[in-house]
Task: inverse folding
């Protein structure tokens, strides 16, 4: 196999065999193929696509590039949730403790921020001391102890995906259903889970801008998961505006603690209840979705979910004091308020632009090596359909470095479209469920 | 500028500004952008294309990444020729001495074999002692002394192109008119020439398989050159069969010496006279193309062109004895004759396959690091339209290593299509001239 031949074949819309894909992934993981060849191949995949057999072969090649965990020795079902990512998308931090508090096991291997979207690991690391880099033994121990552990991809888990994911982030090769499917499913299938709930985002702040693309990806994910013997459903949910009221690592942790405390923004709370309910249903903890929602709400109201979050934070070395006093989290030095230039209604939001503004402020990475500033981020004051007065705040930028403000401000200022008439419809939270 | 944004914009068929392209090329040349980002961008360019303003900006950015030579202190016009490459395409070695003998200056910076096509530098290096790696000072001295010097790209000339060219070769990003144009023109415009004649090959042995693609590339090259204030024409010439009777470095040098001696294959001689005539015309040495052809023929007949070649070889450290006795060139130990399996006429030739056969024999490189065997190559006995008897030789493979014969033989044996009827037309030598 010559890598350049496989690149050329994909560039010319050709199909690769299972063996060729296995060799490509194995060689890249072992360092036998340089990054510059892989990134050219990835760009060809983004622009030419992959067939279903190619996607299946890629997913399995990436899955088997490392260890596949087995938690069958633990009682109760192992379930997980995965989101395709968006702006202010922080549900994992709420759902994982709810579902663990409800008696299921949640072995959650998460990712970092990718492009304009945030990542669970980056959010968790804004809790002082929180260690997302547990070795697998420790991951198993925390999971057995409290029913949930949240870590990053270890060297053992789908190392091919780890390497490819980092490369995609900096080479404009994120937005490919084939690559997204292989990346998600290779990691998730390595977790030793029985069931998986997928939150496939669509809209101006999602990787899939339109609902049909999102539905296609969702079907691809569900099909791939079911082929591997897992229970899988996918919810197509809205990302035409940020989820909740914040985007920024420490700010989002604080917001999740609010939701776990029974408060917080309605949209975030609703989506968390819905996703947790599906996890309970697929994990056979409840018989109906409504029962799952009620159980989730009860676990919040009783404080058990919040208590579970505190337990997880403690077991993973984090400052549990944060759970009672989110003021202990890092806070940006400066704020800039973006106000509305005219009166009217929020007609639409360029949500990805808001995500990029967060990256520009230092809350995400422009290059793999970049260090994240946990304190910075955006606070959102208006949602689609809201009335707004001239001069009224639309959002606030919380920042530490003046040099970063200009670009972020310009992104945020141009992200809101304001019209004189109230929009006839606002985006629903959930569009449809696939695979149920 | 974030490299990933420029990659994404091109991926999504967007246009980059002149400043963005300048920054991208400058940063890549300086090492500020890694290979893996550049290769993803290059693949996006291959699949999405570039606009004319983008191509102009890319060419100029690559040109100004290094020194731009200035030979205005030398009397008479500076002209050059560039071919897009093919099999047996050896005209530079004939034309450069003709045009220099005719009084113009030919500062020729050439390339090495790429893919299945040969390269002027590899051919020249089959002359014992010939040094193609002259420093610029020495290049200037040889040019001033004898009116011509033939060297490879130095570190000073278009370093951005040098780096990008090497990357393209191994990432499947060679076949892009935009990138080909920027690569050729940035190097050629750095030579300090007044005029350039382009030989754009089309056919089964060229990078541009069909004439429309070749014409589009030719127009792009001509437009780009003219915009930079140069006189430029492009000849679209045939590469559906090898040029001349040999493909192989030492064998091609011997064939060029034949042409310079007034003999040699008709097609090679004709094309050389035509290209040299255009150089004389653009260089204002003659008033008409016919006058240019006559001058070229006279310079061969008088022996002055051959004498000029000897002078160049001597000044660049080569064995001048080769000019009188090509038998001093390396010669392969073994030969294998490919014969026709049936009687009929040569209907078509898979010319690229013959080029690859030459690479397989060791005459070209499969990897950048490969060493070339100057002695090996192919000798062609039949051209399209020729009658052939069963068992009559089609071509001969000259080789040194038995292990290389099997694959090369199979490539050569399947390269000829023989039909019972004589083909109605044979490819012309020259299809059209663009920019005249």
Result:
């Amino acid at each position: 196999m010559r890598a350049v031949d496989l690149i050329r074949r994909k560039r010319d819309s050709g199909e690769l065999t299972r063996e060729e894909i296995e060799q490509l992934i194995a060689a890249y993981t072992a360092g036998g193929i340089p990054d510059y060849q892989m990134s050219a191949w990835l760009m060809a995949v983004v622009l030419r696509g992959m067939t279903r057999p190619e996607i299946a072969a890629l997913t399995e090649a990436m899955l088997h590039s490392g260890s596949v965990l087995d938690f069958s020795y633990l009682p109760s079902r192992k379930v997980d949730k995965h989101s395709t990512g968006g702006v202010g998308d922080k549900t994992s931090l709420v759902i994982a403790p709810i579902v663990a508090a409800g008696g299921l096991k949640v072995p959650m291997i998460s990712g970092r921020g990718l492009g304009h979207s945030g990542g669970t690991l980056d959010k968790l690391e804004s809790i002082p001391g929180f260690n997302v880099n547990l070795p697998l033994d420790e991951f198993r121990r925390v999971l057995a102890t409290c029913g949930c552990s949240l870590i990053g991809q270890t060297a053992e888990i789908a190392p091919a995906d780890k390497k490819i994911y980092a490369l995609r982030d900096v080479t404009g090769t994120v937005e490919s259903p084939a690559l997204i499917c292989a990346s998600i499913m290779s990691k998730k299938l390595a977790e030793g889970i029985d069931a998986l709930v997928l939150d496939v985002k669509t809209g101006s702040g999602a990787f899939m801008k339109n609902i049909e693309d999102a539905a296609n990806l969702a079907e691809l994910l569900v099909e791939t998961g079911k082929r591997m013997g897992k229970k899988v459903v996918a919810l197509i949910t809205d990302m035409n505006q940020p989820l909740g009221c914040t985007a920024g690592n420490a700010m989002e942790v604080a917001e999740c603690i609010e939701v776990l405390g029974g408060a917080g923004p309605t949209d975030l709370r609703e989506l968390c209840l819905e996703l947790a309910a599906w996890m309970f249903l697929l994990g056979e903890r409840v018989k109906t979705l409504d029962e799952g929602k009620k159980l989730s709400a009860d676990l919040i109201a009783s404080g058990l979910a919040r208590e579970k979050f505190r337990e997880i934070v403690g077991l993973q070395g984090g400052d549990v004091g944060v759970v009672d006093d989110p003021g202990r989290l890092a806070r940006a030095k400066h704020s800039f308020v973006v106000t509305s230039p005219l009166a009217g209604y929020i007609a639409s939001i360029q949500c990805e632009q808001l995500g990029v503004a967060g990256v520009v402020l230092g809350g995400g990475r422009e290059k793999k090596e970049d260090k994240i500033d946990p304190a910075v981020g955006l606070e959102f004051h208006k949602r689609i359909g809201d009335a707004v007065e001239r001069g009224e705040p639309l959002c606030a930028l919380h920042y530490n470095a003046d040099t970063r403000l200009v670009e972020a401000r310009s992104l945020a200022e141009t992200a809101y479209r304001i019209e004189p008439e109230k929009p006839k419809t606002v985006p629903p939270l959930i569009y449809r469920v696939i695979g149920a």
Observations:
- The interface with chain B takes residues 3-4, 7-8, 11, 34-44, 46-48, 167, 169-173, 366 of chain A (CB under 8 Å).
- The CA atoms of residues 137 and 203 of chain A lie 39 Å apart.
